[in-house]
TrEMBL record:
<keyword id="KW-0812">Transmembrane</keyword>
<dbReference type="Pfam" id="PF00916">
    <property type="entry name" value="Sulfate_transp"/>
</dbReference>
<feature type="transmembrane region" description="Helical">
    <location>
        <begin position="47"/>
        <end position="63"/>
    </location>
</feature>
<feature type="transmembrane region" description="Helical">
    <location>
        <begin position="194"/>
        <end position="215"/>
    </location>
</feature>
<keyword id="KW-0472">Membrane</keyword>
<feature type="domain" description="SLC26A/SulP transporter">
    <location>
        <begin position="17"/>
        <end position="380"/>
    </location>
</feature>
<feature type="transmembrane region" description="Helical">
    <location>
        <begin position="92"/>
        <end position="112"/>
    </location>
</feature>
<keyword id="KW-1133">Transmembrane helix</keyword>
<feature type="transmembrane region" description="Helical">
    <location>
        <begin position="21"/>
        <end position="41"/>
    </location>
</feature>
<feature type="transmembrane region" description="Helical">
    <location>
        <begin position="325"/>
        <end position="355"/>
    </location>
</feature>
<feature type="transmembrane region" description="Helical">
    <location>
        <begin position="70"/>
        <end position="86"/>
    </location>
</feature>
<feature type="transmembrane region" description="Helical">
    <location>
        <begin position="375"/>
        <end position="403"/>
    </location>
</feature>
<dbReference type="GO" id="GO:0055085">
    <property type="term" value="P:transmembrane transport"/>
</dbReference>
<feature type="transmembrane region" description="Helical">
    <location>
        <begin position="169"/>
        <end position="187"/>
    </location>
</feature>
<dbReference type="InterPro" id="IPR001902">
    <property type="entry name" value="SLC26A/SulP_fam"/>
</dbReference>
<dbReference type="InterPro" id="IPR011547">
    <property type="entry name" value="SLC26A/SulP_dom"/>
</dbReference>
<feature type="transmembrane region" description="Helical">
    <location>
        <begin position="124"/>
        <end position="149"/>
    </location>
</feature>
């Protein structure tokens, strides 16, 4: 359970430091708008996304079991975070995140990191696609510039509310959102190592500011972003609150563990390395405790940002530490500029993120798998979108393990880790 940074530092060189620094800066430019957008989509203040990227991102790289893992807020948490905030308030989310961190540390100490191999892959694919559907649906009001006084949390009532608000369509907002999405796709294909995501959002947001277009921005909706980290403090703790938030804490811990280990598996294939799963789970626990103490969101290893780090030349945990410090520097020096980011631009960014999460290039493979796996995926997907994430995970894992027992003895099936 030894952190990877202790393995890499004894053989660290100036060339590695330069490569890690450049990679860390590149990843920070990607993580900055994503962290803001994920926080907003989760129903939280956008500054909470920056706090999470800084605190959790630093701890995941410092203590983690992967050489190249980048941590922070991710789209996988949006659904559960939104639900916890709606039911228990933001202070309830902080306590649930703190509890999830303790659960993850206990799992790491008990060396449960290897148990990811027993979670059925169709379950992971099903709730990942389901989360992508929910994220995309949640961003449609900002993409279309709709005016909705009280947007419902549940999927079907939310779609109904958007349909009834269709007369409030803002064509300018829709144009900004679509332009941002097109720019992101074009820049990603033309220059995959360039932080085109930030450039696309910055360009369309600058157009909104300079042309005084009638489009909402981060500042117009939420006010000024924080220009420093808050002081750490504990949330209100009581036996009743611990009992009420325990299911949410387990869901957050499960998502953090699964997503981080999937990300580490992807990274291993890209760098031909081998991560330490139990050290990674311990780091996720410490990161979520740290994020909660500073009032941040749940965090985990971010697959897209980890892949970006590797492609930019990052090879040790120092790159992830640099990424966190760069975001901190931006918060301290340039927080007012981030307030100009246009809401439709961030919505377009998250819709593309949701699309990538669903891995459309694998849909044909999913649908041609054995019938029991297809049904397991569809059941998990439907429960994720229409019911509750905790229910989807519980039912999916139970059905998946039952199917595995029915098929007879044998080792766990290997993952096909996603690159989303």
């Amino acid at each position: 359970m030894k952190p990877k940074i202790l393995t890499t530092l004894p053989v660290y060189t100036r060339q590695l430091f330069l490569a890690d620094t450049l990679a860390g800066i590149s990843v920070a430019m990607v993580a900055l708008p994503l962290s803001l957008a994920i926080a907003i989509a989760s129903g939280a203040d956008p500054g909470k996304g920056l706090i999470t990227a800084i605190v959790a991102g630093f701890l995941i790289s410092l203590l983690g079991g992967s050489r190249v893992q980048i941590g922070g807020p991710t789209g996988a948490f949006i659904v559960v975070v939104f639900g916890v905030i709606a039911e228990h308030g933001y202070d309830g989310l902080v306590l649930a995140t703190l509890m999830a961190g303790v659960i993850l540390i206990a799992a790491g100490v008990l060396r449960l990191g290897n148990l990811i191999a027993y979670v059925p892959e169709p379950v992971v694919n099903g709730f990942t696609i389901g989360i992508g559907v929910i994220i995309a649906a949640s961003q449609l009001p900002d993409l279309f510039g709709l005016t909705i006084a009280d947007l419902p949390a549940d999927f079907l009532p939310k779609m109904s509310a958007m349909w009834h608000a269709r007369d409030s369509l803002n064509v300018t907002a829709l144009a900004i959102g679509i332009a941002t999405m097109v720019l992101i796709v074009v820049l990603r294909r033309a220059a995959p190592k360039f932080p085109g995501l930030l450039l696309a959002v910055a360009l369309t947001s600058a157009l909104v500011a300079l042309a005084l277009l009638p489009v909402e921005t981060v500042f117009s909706r939420f006010g000024a972003l924080p220009s420093a980290l808050p002081r750490p403090q504990l949330p209100e703790i009581s036996v009743e609150r611990l009992r009420d938030l325990l299911p949410s804490a387990f869901v957050i811990a499960f998502l953090a563990g699964v997503e981080s280990l999937l990300s580490a598996l992807v990274a291993d294939r890209m760098i031909e390395g081998r991560h330490r799963p139990n050290a990674e789970v311990l780091a996720q626990g410490a990161a979520n405790i740290g994020s909660a103490l500073f009032g941040g969101l749940p965090a985990t290893g971010a697959i897209a940002r980890t892949a970006t780090n590797i492609r930019a030349g990052g090879r040790t945990p120092v790159a992830g530490i640099v990424h966190a410090l760069v975001i901190l520097a931006v918060m301290l020096v340039a927080a007012p500029l981030a307030g100009y980011l246009a809401m439709p631009a961030l919505a377009g960014l998250l819709i593309l993120t949701a699309w990538n999460m669903s891995e459309p290039h694998k849909w044909r493979k999913h649908l041609t798998a054995r019938p029991s796996d297809v049904m397991l995926l569809l059941i998990t997907l439907a429960l994720t979108v229409l019911a509750d994430l905790a229910v989807a995970i519980g039912v999916g894992v139970a059905l998946g393990l039952a199917l595995r027992l029915r098929r007879g003895p044998g080792g766990p099936e290997g993952w096909t880790p996603p690159d989303r």
